[in-house]
Amino acid sequence: MPLKLGPAGVPLSCKGRTIVEGMDDITALGLEAMEIQTVRPVQPKHFDQYWQAGILSWDSGIEMNLHGPYYAELLGKRRERNRSLAKMEASMQAGKIINARHLVYHVGPYGEYDPGTEANEQVANIFSGIVDRVREIWGEQDEDAYTAFPWISEQEPSLVGIETSGRQELWGTVEEVLEVCNHVEGTVPVLNIGHIHARGHGSMRTSEDYAELFDMVRENYGGSRFYCHFAGIEHRMGNALHYTQIKKSDLKFEPFAEFLAEEGDWMDITIISDSPLLEHDAMYMMQHYDKARQRLMEIRARDERRIKLAKESGLTPEELELLEQETADARRREDSEDTKPAKASAKAPSKMMSFDAPEDDDDLF
Amino acid sequence: MEQGVRMIALGDPEGSDKASQLIAIASSLGLKSSIITSNPGENFESFNHGAIDWKEKMAMAHWVVNSASMVTAGPSPAMAWSASMTFAELEGCRNVMIVDMPSDPESISMVWGQVIEKVRQIHVLFFTSASLDAISKLEGSDGPDFLSRVREKTMIPLVCGYSESDSCAKVAHALDNIQAQSSGESEGLRWLAGFLKSLPLSGAGIEGIRAAALWE
User: Fold this and answer.
1) Total domain count, chain B
2) Above pLDDT 90, what percent of chain A?
3) How far apart are CA A261 and CA B22, in angstroms?
């Protein structure tokens, strides 16, 4: 299964602070993706840095992604919406230069809309315009641009990611995001697991919860490409309060790793760590994924061995498993019997009255 | 074990930045506090920030204070600024960010952009009066609920600011917004020092935050 992990920003441990230096660190850490935040205002020096990063990503295969403004009000009044769109424009321009595979955006508060079809239609209209604008930007180039940006001719334009929100008053439940993505070609759902967990009052606890989530996405949206954010999160009353390290949160990565290892073969997934410990937690996730895969391989190897042995001894694997179970039980019984006489002999010499009550199966207490 | 709230800050050797000023005030209020800066004779702009033993400096510290304008002080302070927040996160200290005006007001947009990149690591964000005006204009949101909006946008647990016009410190938290009349000494830094001193001891929940905010 293709799984790419990376931090949301230049790694904290990076000596330099440029994107290219950050990408070098990411490669050294064995990570394969990066999401960068658009700085504002975008100045020519930033474009130069973005272009260098784009070239490096083209050569090295690191997946670059871009996060739009950290907050938007796309469902606000015209003035607020236009202000948000103006901020987004810079990230769309930068997305082409950096060869971003995803441009990630928030929608913001419901504003004057109630959750439902009307709000979703409005979001779909806005994102339809955003997708058109991204394609327009990718289409705007002269002959020289093909040399400078080889990905323009050989790659598809950036996909527009719509991120799930972590608060009740913000547009962006999983269902809402999926509905809009279904209606607007060129958009993809960005599953912020921390947000989904917070909004669902701590819903992402077991690997089954992840199976349910990704099944829902597969059924409603289709496709096998996924883009996720993962970080520890503090939440209350269905609202995200604060990002934390994964270790300090009730949102654990182990169940997600278990799900990916066991059932994620069909998925092509990028997971971005937006925890306060960016790359540290990305590495932590990678380790847990490797562990889960290792565990799964061990289980599979044991099962294969059992099948092979069963064939050799003329039993079915189930019969052999039962036999193994019985043998193990018998061995356990033998072991416990070996220890019993030792205990008995320790007690035997004493002729004093014992206050130890004899075992009474009827006495529930 | 040594008792009491402890605070450290990254500051310039002259002590002219807001984090150093906060430390000076905090010391006068009885907080155990210290400043991390370049060695004597070293150029602050290019001091050897790799030599700082953050783990040792942060031992037993509750708060690690930084001022936003430190990112404009040169490459070394900017890197130390970033590293301090990561180490604070790793060592279990809380990051406090004072958003102040840089010496070149034109660079406020860049400075604010750098703070935004770090929002996940910040626990207390404090705007001085001047920066409150500048950032609210920059964000196009200059209403009375600006602090709450920043908190909602960034998910920083405590967003505070001092307003000179009404001599009032404000705290935006997920559970409530609190206002506290303040003497306004040192652009609200005295209030902030007292708030940080009281907060770890004032109890849990919004009542604890309220009690700490009203310390004056």
Assistant:
1) 1
2) 56
3) 50
Quote the minimal CA–CA distance from B174 to chain A in Å: 7
Q: Residue A201 CB: number of other CB atoms within 10 A?
A: 11
| Stretch (H or E) spanning A365 | none
For residue B173, give the CATH number of its domain: 3.40.1190.20
Query: Residue B201 domain-assigned?
Result: yes
Print the domain residue range for A191.
3-299
User: pLDDT band for position B41 (50/70/90)?
Assistant: confident
Summarize pLDDT for B149-186 with one digit per residue, the tens.
899 888 899 999 998 888 889 999 988 999 988 876 77
Mean pLDDT within A178-199? 95
Q: Kindly state whether B82 is in contact with chain A, defined as any CB-CB distance less than 8 angstroms.
A: yes
Q: pLDDT, tens digit, for every residue of A17-66?
A: 688 989 999 999 999 999 988 765 566 667 888 889 999 999 999 999 99
Q: How many domains does chain A have?
A: 1
Closest-approach residue (CA) in chain B for A40: B113
Pairwise CB contact (< 8 Å): B120 & A243: yes
Q: How many Cα atoms within 13 Å fall on the side-chain side of residue A42?
A: 20
Tokens of A278: 């960016």
> In angstroms, what CA-CA distances link B145 with A283, B75, B159, B166?
39, 35, 11, 15
Which H or E run includes A70?
A: none
pLDDT reported for residue A146: 67
Numbered residues of chain A with Cβ closer than 8 Å to any chain B Cβ = 9, 12-13, 15, 17, 37, 39-41, 70-71, 83, 166-167, 231, 236, 239-243, 245, 274-277, 280
Quote the CA–CA distance of A166 and A177 in Å, as a whole number. Answer: 13
Is B119 in the A-facing interface, judged by CB distances under 8 Å? yes
pLDDT at position A213, please? 96
Q: Classify residue A341: in a domain, yes or no.
A: no
Contact of B157 with chain A, judged by CB distance below 8 Å, is answered with yes
Tell whether A310 is covered by a domain. Answer: no
**What average pLDDT does the segment A246-273 reach?**
94
CA distance B194 to chain A (A): 24
Domain carrying residue B167: 6-213
Nearest residue of A to residue B120, measured between CA atoms:
A276
Per-residue pLDDT tens digits for A81-128: 998 998 899 889 889 889 999 999 999 999 889 999 999 999 999 999
Note whether residue B62 is domain-resident: yes
CA A325 from centre of chain: 38
State the pLDDT at residue A308.
Answer: 84
- Nearest Cα neighbor of A267 from A194, A213, A303 is A213
pTM of the model: 0.80
Q: Tell me: pLDDT of A358 over 60.
A: no
Distance from CA of B113 to the nearest CA of A (A): 6
A333 part of a folded domain: no
Q: For residue A264, what is the domain's CATH number?
A: 3.20.20.150
Query: Is there a domain that residue B159 lies in?
Result: yes
Within-domain flag for A88? yes
**Smallest CA–CA distance from B139 into chain A, residue:** A83
A17: closest chain B residue by CA: B79
Predicted complex ipTM: 0.72
Q: Within a domain: residue B144?
A: yes
Distance from CA of A135 to the nearest CA of B (A): 27
Torsion angle (degrees, nearest 10) of CA A211, A199, A218, A303: -10
